[in-house]
């Protein structure tokens, strides 16, 4: 669900009671582990962690007016979604995450290309999400995105598009 808010605090306050604590906790663990240079924003109606235009003026290739997304966190109708663009853009990171997930969580991994869905609020692997958030610096993320976007034959529909995965 998209919330029409302008700050992360407003986003958290707008959440249903059963989602407020787990989203707040995910936010805290992401902020604690996120490498210097990323910024927290509101994007796509949810919490966003981006490479700001001050570090990467080109912005997001699908919409250059938007900062380069790295991770988004949102409360959806039936789950909390962590949109980890980094696991979609970097195969080795995805392989690491998929192999580590069962060590941290009792439930089966529910994951699309970049969306990791948490349906059971008491079984969210907070430490693993924190580790994931800290795995790539803004400079490394920019290089990965540039490589993907500049790859011959990449079409917009095949590219990393937040909210479409």
The proportion of strand residues reads 15-25%
Shape: globular
Going across the major beta sheet, what is the strand order? Answer: 1-2-3-4-5
Q: What name does the CATH topology carry?
A: Aspartate Aminotransferase, domain 1
Q: How large is the radius of gyration?
A: 15 Å
SSE pattern: HHEEEEHHEHH
Give the oligomeric state of the chains in this entry, treating copies of one chain as homo and distinct chains as hetero. single chain
Total beta strand runs: 5
Q: What is the percent of helical residues?
A: 25-40%
CATH-defined architecture: Alpha-Beta Complex
CATH class: Alpha Beta
**Total of DSSP H or I helical runs spanning 4+ residues:** 6
Mean pLDDT: 89
Question: Ranges with pLDDT <50 over ≥5 residues?
Answer: 152-165
Derived structural class:
alpha+beta
Major sheet size, sense and barrel closure: 5 strands, antiparallel
Distance between the first and last residues' Cα: 15 Å
Q: How many distinct folded domains?
A: 1
Can you walk through the features of this model?
This protein is of the alpha+beta class and 165 residues long. It has one domain: Aspartate Aminotransferase, domain 1 (Alpha-Beta Complex), CATH 3.90.1150.200. It has 6 helices and 5 strands, in the order ααββββααβαα. The protein has helices spanning 8-14, 17-33, 85-89, 91-104, 126-133, 138-150, and strands at 39-43, 46-51, 68-75, 80-84, 115-118. A 5-stranded antiparallel beta sheet has the order 1-2-3-4-5. β3 (68-75) and β4 (80-84) form a beta hairpin. α2 (17-33) crosses α5.
């Amino acid at each position: 669900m998209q919330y029409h808010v302008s700050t992360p605090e407003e986003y958290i306050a707008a959440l249903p009671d059963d989602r407020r604590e787990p989203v707040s906790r995910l936010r805290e663990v992401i902020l604690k582990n996120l490498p210097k240079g990323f910024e927290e924003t509101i994007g796509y109606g949810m919490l966003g962690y981006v490479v700001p235009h001050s570090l990467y003026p080109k912005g997001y290739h699908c919409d250059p007016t938007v900062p380069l997304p790295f991770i988004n966190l949102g409360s959806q109708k039936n789950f909390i979604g962590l949109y980890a663009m980094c696991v979609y853009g970097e195969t080795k990171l995805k392989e690491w995450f998929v192999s580590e997930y069962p060590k941290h969580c009792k439930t089966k991994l529910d994951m699309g290309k970049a969306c990791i869905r948490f349906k059971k609020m008491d079984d969210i692997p907070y430490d693993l999400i924190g580790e994931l958030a800290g795995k790539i610096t803004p400079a490394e993320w920019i290089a990965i995105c540039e490589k993907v976007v500049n790859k011959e034959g990449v079409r917009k529909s095949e590219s990393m598009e937040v909210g479409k995965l």
